Amino acid sequence: MFENFGEFNTFEEINELAENLFNEGDFASIKTLAKENGIPEEMAKMYISGDLPCLCDAMTAAVGKLDVEARELKLKGLMKDWISYIECECEESEEVARAVRRKDKCLKKCIAELLKYSFANQWTVPQGILKEAGVKASKVTFGVPGMGKAREIIAGYYGKGGKK
Fold first, then answer.
1. Residue 164 domain-assigned?
2. What is the mean pLDDT of the chain?
3. Domain housing 42
4. Do 30 and 100 belong to one domain?
5. 88 within some domain
């Protein structure tokens, strides 16, 4: 995942390396640094041309890390929606964005927290819904958190103090 430059703990660390690479004239490595950290190529080009004062901010670094992690996990369906919820938390709180970037936090563990909640909070789907859906099983349980609860779990894992 972070094969060339390793994983960074903060967006400031990414920017420090980008500045050093810029000062050395190593623009190809800046592009590699950006790609490896999920930072759009266009931002790398703008940084190299002097149109941006730094390669990334807290939000860009956090969303970039999420993109890289999500690609590796090959998430589908609702789990992709959960990433959107994490991105929303990053937009609303720089503290959460900074926490997402930290080395001790990862998307895989956040998704695991959401799944733990899902299994611990299953409820029986009413027979009328099962019948309407054509489900012949005598009992079906369901426990996926709603958007509000999912965002609460995400905030608890990543930020607003980063308790976990």
1. yes
2. 93
3. 1-56
4. no
5. yes
Confidence label for 163 from pLDDT (cuts 50, 70 and 90): very low
Judgement on whether residues 45 and 111 belong to the same structural domain of the protein:
no
As a whole number of angstroms, the distance between CA 109 and CA 138 comes to: 33
CA distance 36 to 40: 10
Beta strands in the chain (DSSP E): 123-124, 141-142
Amino acid at position 71, single letter: R
Per-residue pLDDT, 160: 62
Model confidence pLDDT, tens digit, residues 27-80: 999 999 999 999 999 999 999 999 999 999 999 999 999 999 999 999 999 999
State whether 27 and 80 are in the same domain: no
Alpha helices (runs of H) in the chain, residue ranges in sequence order: 11-23, 27-36, 41-49, 58-73, 78-92, 94-101, 107-120, 127-133, 147-158
C-alpha of 99 from chain center: 10
- Side-chain-side CA neighbours of 141 within 13 Å: the count stands at 7
For residue 90, being part of any structural domain is answered with: yes
Q: Are strands 123-124 and 141-142 parallel, antiparallel or unpaired?
A: antiparallel
Query: What pLDDT, on a 0 to 100 scale, did the predictor assign at position 18?
Result: 98
> Would you say 82 and 90 are in contact if contact means Cβ atoms under 8 Å apart?
no
- In a shared domain, residues 8 and 87: no
CA distance 19 to 52: 12
pTM higher than the cut 0.70: yes
